Amino acid sequence: DTAVSQTPKYLVTQMGNDKSIKCEQNLGHDTMYWYKQDSKKFLKIMFSYNNKELIINETVPNRFSPKSPDKAHLNLHINSLELGDSAVYFCASSLAGTGNSPLHFGNGTRLTVT
Amino acid sequence: GQSLEQPSEVTAVEGAIVQINCTYQTSGFYGLSWYQQHDGGAPTFLSYNGLDGLEETGRFSSFLSRSDSYGYLLLQELQMKDSASYFCAVRNTGGFKTIFGAGTRLFVKA
């Protein structure tokens, strides 16, 4: 009964390759996110989707292309991987709105680009 | 710009009380939250302050002063398992964007 699940947990690949990370939530939330956590543990928002529509794109290179087939899924495809893409990528979900609706995070995907 | 400032590291002993401060600067504000992250794990939600004052949840309390753009997380009766990183976070942009501070690494010693 995992709330937010993302796969794979680990991804090791070479520069120039293309890879995808999948995310699914069963909490009934309408908003989903991708965050990148670098080696210094800084959590930076990349994308925010509400009901399958892109709301926030935080000046992420267009090599990163999110896709939300429905409001329970948000996938991330990365083209032409670079060394600097190595990080932990977290998917998260919440209810929309301005009140107390905490983010629920998946367990993360550790991406290593060699 | 938008930014949150919190100390990078705090060390305390078991059983003690520790306070982690957070000051923020953001356009639009819908509350201050705190998240805990253990090494190798995912951030998990701890508390939320939408209005000024103190919120208490067990051993953890959180405080907000909107006029000072300041908040803190108070951890009481520290346990070894509290060793983790703690992030303050602010929600803005109509509630669709949550930005995080750089995190405070808490070390609890025996």
Provide structural commentary:
The complex is a heterodimer of chains A (114) and B (110). Chain A is mainly β. Chain A is 0% helix and 55% strand. In chain A, strands 2, 4, 5, 6, 9, 10 and 11 form a seven-stranded mixed beta sheet that branches. In chain A, strands 1-3-8-7 form a four-stranded antiparallel beta sheet, with no helix packed on it. The relative contact order of chain A is 0.33. The model of chain A has no long low-confidence stretch (mean pLDDT 95). Chain B is mainly beta and 110 residues long. Chain B has strands at residues 3-5, 9-13, 18-25, 32-37, 44-49, 53-57, 60-65, 70-75, 84-92, 97-100, 104-109. In chain B, the strands form two sheets. In chain B, strands 2, 4, 5, 9, 10 and 11 form a six-stranded mixed beta sheet that branches. In chain B, strands 1-3-8-7-6 form a five-stranded antiparallel beta sheet, with no helix packed on it. At the A-B interface, strand 5 and strand 10 of A face strand 4, strand 5, strand 9 and strand 10 of B.
How would you concisely characterize the structure shown here?
With 114 residues, chain A is mostly beta strands. Chain A has strands at residues 4-7, 10-13, 19-25, 31-37, 43-50, 53-57, 64-70, 73-78, 87-94, 104-105, 109-113. Chain A has no helices and eleven strands.
